[in-house]
Amino acid sequence: MNENWRCAREQVITYARRLLTERLVSYTAGNLSVRVPGEPALLAVTPTSTPYDELEPEDIVIVGTDGEIVDGRRPPTSELSMHTLICARRPDIGAVVHTHSPAAMTMANLGWTLPAILTGLVEATGGDVRTSPYSVSGSEEMADLTEAALRDRGATFLRYHGLLSVGADLHHAYRAASVVESACWVYLTLRGIGEVHELPTDQVNWIATYWRAQFPGAPAPRPAP
User: Fold this and answer.
1) Between 3.40.225.10, 3.40.50.12230, 3.40.1010.20, 3.30.230.70, what CATH number should domain 3-212 receive?
2) Are 78 and 48 in contact (CB under 8 A)?
3) What pLDDT, in 10s, does the model give residues 27-50?
4) Whole-model pTM?
5) What's the pLDDT tens digit per position in 148-186?
6) Interatomic CA distance for residues 155 and 208, integer angstroms
7) Out of 42, 152, 190, 218, which residue is the most buried by the measure of CB atoms under 10 Å away?
């Protein structure tokens, strides 16, 4: 097996199993992808309808950002176009994670925005997390409608669906998905109590510089205001 492909496939399996461990997905729901090291026009993507705890390297599909299947013994996720189109349009994005976690799905159903209520949330996503308009799962429209919400952000809720997170690499994309789920639980709890307090704008802008630092060419994080 091509060494770059093997590395990417192993990353996908590692993080796919973390999805299960953290209960960010149920059974075979959700999907994720990462660019192949040294071959940015190729992605390693989870296959369709395969339990994550049963995945083997050969199950992870290698596809081009043009959607062409290059290698793999299983069909890719049915939401492949969401991954390929985002990565084709955004060369700065190195990985995409799509989860079906309970609190994020609650926010997606309601069409709410998750405000910048926690420092860790801002560091993981760059600020608040907005809901993208509804689109058919796996359609090209989904990539179109998430583009605005992912501009200068690491995650967006997919209306009536789940969460989509992105990053310069799989570590950052996964971190965004995990932190958003926890922050959603906090936000929903605060809504039940009746009080939600957001970080001051100057603090959000400062902390967000740490999120942006993951991308090549980004300026170093600014000193605390």
Assistant:
1) 3.40.225.10
2) yes
3) 999 999 999 999 999 999 999 999
4) 0.96
5) 899 999 999 999 999 999 999 999 999 999 999 999 999
6) 13
7) 42
Domain locations in the chain as residue ranges? 3-212
With a cut of 70, say whether residue 1 has pLDDT above it.
Answer: no
Cβ-based neighbour number of residue 14 at 10 Å: 12
Q: Which of 3, 10, 22, 79 is catalytic?
A: 79
User: What's at 13, amino acid-wise?
Assistant: I
Choose among 89, 56, 63: nearest CA to 77. 63
22 a catalytic residue: no
CA angle at 147 for the pair 30 and 95, rounded to the nearest 5°: 45
> Tokens representing 189?
């709890």
